[in-house]
Amino acid sequence: MDQATALRLHEAMLLTRLTEERIVKLFRQGQTLGSVYRSLGQEATACATALALGPDDVIAPLIRNLGAMLVRGATPLEVFLQYLGRATGPSGGREHNNHFGSVARGIIAPTSMLGALIPIMAGVALSFRQRGEQRVAMTWIGDGGSSTGAFYEGLNLAVVQRLPLIVVGEANGFAFSTPPERQMAGHLSERAQGAHTLTVDGNDAAAVYEAATAARNHCLAGLGPVFLVCETFRLSGHAEHDDQRYVDPELLAQWAERDPLPRFEAWLAARDWRPEPGLAQRLEAELLATAEAALTAPWPDPATLTQGLFTQQ
Ligand SMILES: Cc1ncc(C[n+]2csc(CCOP(=O)(O)OP(=O)(O)O)c2C)c(N)n1
Q: CATH assignment of 3-297, given 3.40.50.970, 3.40.50.1820, 1.10.10.10, 1.10.579.10?
């Protein structure tokens, strides 16, 4: 990874963390609709994988992958408006959290049904192959989500059709409050039969970036899908309403030591690659101003309630 890419990756991870921190503040002020799902401790797996893609590739993130959306050009203003349910947000107040897409930026909206995005992205990858386009499709899945039928159906199709699909598996310790050994046999990395599987320290941003780059090259060479398993840990609850009381505090402390953000900052410092001085303060000030602007945005007009739906009464 060259210096410019490394600094971009650092800024993306920092922006992700600070954007989510700002959303948590809005939640605690009672401003957001619904709960807040964040990726604390998992920013490297979201940002470094997306950053390894080309501009024409397509992503389908999940709730822990806001960082991937920011890398692809989604803005904190859109995210705040969406969490606040405002008319000027990406879904006009119809949806909340990061459940919005952007065709222009190659982002397919997250869906709540875990696993469902894998067959969808296998279809996207199939369309690339049929058109002879050098593009890849990428999506993410948690250890819990890998226990769905859709996970197997989608990956199996990608394997037999040798599709350019990268599935990033986030082994993050818990599915809600359930540890992997209570809901799956073996390890996540054993689950994608026939797919080229790479396992990487998901809290090492540089290693994740290199692995994602290798995965993309594998796909572009026509060698079929890659299952990129990132070993990481969810440092906060499933969402803000979850205090994580089921997690051993010692285990949490061990993983906090491996927080990907300070770790990558040390990696940069070892190369004498310096982020812009005061970067965190600048981003924090910008995010505060953006959140304040989002709070003044209009609510959806109740008269439009039946518009923009699949069926209209
Ligand atoms: C098919 C399906 N079953 C159940 C749920 C409810 N659900 C939402 S998140 C979640 C836990 C997901 O755990 P994991 O896939 O490990 O991801 P993580 O939350 O750890 O990032 C569950 C069971 C769902 N959204 N979709």
A: 3.40.50.970
**Distance from the CA of 89 to the center of ligand 1, in angstroms?**
25
* Domain ranges across the chain: 3-297
pLDDT at 96: 86
- The residue whose CA is least distant from atom 12 of ligand 1 is 175
238 is catalytic: yes
Strand partners, 59: 107, 138
Say which of 246, 271, 274, 282 is annotated catalytic.
246
Q: Is 152 a catalytic residue?
A: no
Residues within a 6 A CB radius of ligand 1:
64, 112-115, 142-145, 148, 170, 172, 174-176, 234, 238
| Token pair in block for residue 263 | 């770790």
Whole-number pLDDT of residue 156: 98
Contact status, residue 203 vs residue 258, Cβ threshold 8 Å: yes
CA-nearest residue for atom 11, ligand 1, is 175
Tell me if residue 196 is catalytic: no
Count other Cβ atoms within 10 Å, centred on residue 109: 17
**With a cut of 50, which residues of the chain have pLDDT below it?**
none
Ligand 1, from 63, 114, 117, 238: best to mutate by most atoms within 8 Å of Cβ? 114
How many C-beta atoms lie closer than 10 Å to residue 264's C-beta?
26
